[in-house]
Amino acid sequence: MSFRERLNVYIYEKSVKLIYIDPPYNTGNAFEHYDDGIEHSIWLSMMKKRLELLQKLLSEDGFIFVQIDNYEMPYLKVLMDEVFGRSNFINDIIWKRKGGSVNPTNKLNNMTDYILWYAKSSAAEIYPVYTMDDEETQKYINKRFNKIDENGRRYRLSPIISPTYSKSLVYEYKGYKSPPNGWSLSLEKMKKFEEEGRLYFPENKNQRIQRKQFLDEYKGRPIGNLWTDINVINPMSTERLNFVGQKPEMLIARVLELGSKEGDLILDSFLGTGTTMDVAHKMKRKWIGIEMGNQCYDFCQKRINNTIDGEKTGVAEKYGWQGGGGYKFYELAEPLLVKNKVLPVYQINPSYTWDMVCEAICKIEGFTYEPYGEFQGHSSENRFIHITEEFVNTKYVMSIMKNLGDKQSLLIYCKKNQADMILPENVEVKKIPKDLLDKCNFESEVQE
After folding, report:
1. Best-predicted range by mean pLDDT among 7-11, 75-79, 434-438?
2. How many other CB atoms are found less than 10 A from the CB of residue 416?
3. How many Å is the Cα radius of gyration of the chain?
4. Spatial separation of the C-alpha atoms in residues 63 and 261, rounded to whole Å
5. 131-175, pLDDT tens digit by residue?
6. Does residue 346 contact residue 338 with C-beta atoms inside 8 Å?
7. In whole angstroms, what is the distance from residue 294 CA to residue 228 CA?
8. 168-174: long-range contacts at Cβ-Cβ below 8 A with a sequence spacing of 24 or more?
């Protein structure tokens, strides 16, 4: 099947909350698992067709994240502006993926990857993410959280002064006079904070009471678009697999935290080693992963099986993963349509039986394949599909319509039909393979 078929078979349009893809970077490097050096215009054309389809699959409040390096990032940004709209661009995230150990002589060492982040529409909601691990946050913690209470808890002092005047907040507390605008805490809350040990009372009562902010309750600082706190996978890590370009689970987890919550549907159509599905599973998201190469068996399937069995690698500890869950594994068929070896036309793949053709057309058109009488399937109680190799004319259509009830409609697929037929409003006729081309084939993916 083509890329479009692989997605359409099991995914409804506007059903995916978040898409993350890490496509081949087109660097010209010979990677074992990917053709990562195709001609530039072909690469862009390949990406455009995939992005257009992925855009349709996103829910109105959905996001897409595409990871790329500096070689193709400027071109991909323009392309994504076209597909998703410039107004839906959110950020270019820069991930520092390695240190400066390699020092080329003809240019500066490239230490970063980019992640282009777009929303489907203005309905998309970003969830705040905080970090404790980046260098600036650690400097802030060491400088500000410089006090320790009687229980050994580190804390910093924070003023509790109201920015605007409020009469109800102006009161004396234990001999400490109110600031001119009042405290930022009501009297009731001030008492509660004292009971919980969250207040600092200076010896000099001319000074002000302050609040204790404890380090063990500090969420960290809101992340920006420069991510320096997520390291590449250590060579000795149990997370590491023998796969060039494998991304750390912490990187994918942060992406999923930004744009999704438990129960949301995540999609990765360049699954690689299965990092996205593995992290989504541990974070209690639903997921769909698509991979064409043998790594689907060598890495993805083994990896998710181990996770379900409770293996604690990557982000398992952070999200309290204990194992469990399940998945469905589908192996997809050869392309439905192939190029004729002599004529410049497409035809049904000779390896398909007629039953396989009918089932494939049902799935492409969104019908449930369930042969019964004259019909091969249905999409609802009132819409049916009939697929035939017979010549279809008005008389043929009327004979099939006899099996329809009131307010029911019919889609007919055939190889040949009478020209200029006058059809009832509830009947539509499509031709094989002409009306399947746009639905299931990309030029670069048709079997030669």
Report:
1. 75-79
2. 12
3. 30
4. 12
5. 998 888 999 999 999 999 999 999 999 999 999 999 999 999 999
6. yes
7. 33
8. 173/209, 174/201
Q: Confidence band (pLDDT; 50, 70, 90) for 93?
A: very high
Structure tokens of 253? 């987890």
Q: Which two tokens stand for residue 283?
A: 């974070």
% pLDDT > 90, the chain: 71
Contact 412, 365 (CB under 8 A): no
| Dihedral sign of CA atoms 141, 145, 146, 148 in order | negative
Residue 254 structure tokens: 């942060």
User: Which pLDDT value is given to residue 216?
Assistant: 95
Strand 58-68 relative to strand 112-119, pairing? antiparallel
Query: Does the pLDDT value for residue 196 go beyond 90?
Result: yes
Judged by DSSP in three states, 339 sits in strand
- Two tokens at 114? 């980019």
pLDDT for position 345: 87
Within 266-421, residue ranges assigned H as helices are: 275-282, 295, 302-308, 354-365, 394-401
Q: Please answer whether residues 152 and 169 qualify as being in contact, where contact means their C-beta atoms are separated by less than 8 angstroms.
A: no
Using the CB atoms, write b or e for 105-131: b if 16+ within 10 Å.
eeeeeeebbbbbbbbbeeebeeeebeb
Q: Helix and strand tally (H, E) in the chain?
A: 12, 22
Do residues 414 and 427 make contact, with C-beta atoms less than 8 angstroms apart?
no
CA distances (Å), 127 to each of 105, 222, 411, in order? 42, 11, 43
CA distances from residue 54 to 50, 63, 154, 367 in whole angstroms, order as listed? 6, 10, 47, 21
DSSP E strands: which ranges in 38-161?
58-68, 89-96, 112-119, 130-131, 147-148, 154-159
How would you class 91 by CB atoms within 10 Å of its CB: exposed for 0-12, middle for 13-18, buried for 19 or more?
middle
Amino acid identity of residue 97, one-letter, is R
Query: Model confidence over 375-421: pLDDT tens digits?
Result: 999 998 899 999 999 999 999 999 999 989 888 999 999 999 999 89
3-state SS class at 138 = helix
Measured distance CA(127)–CA(137) in Å, rounded: 20
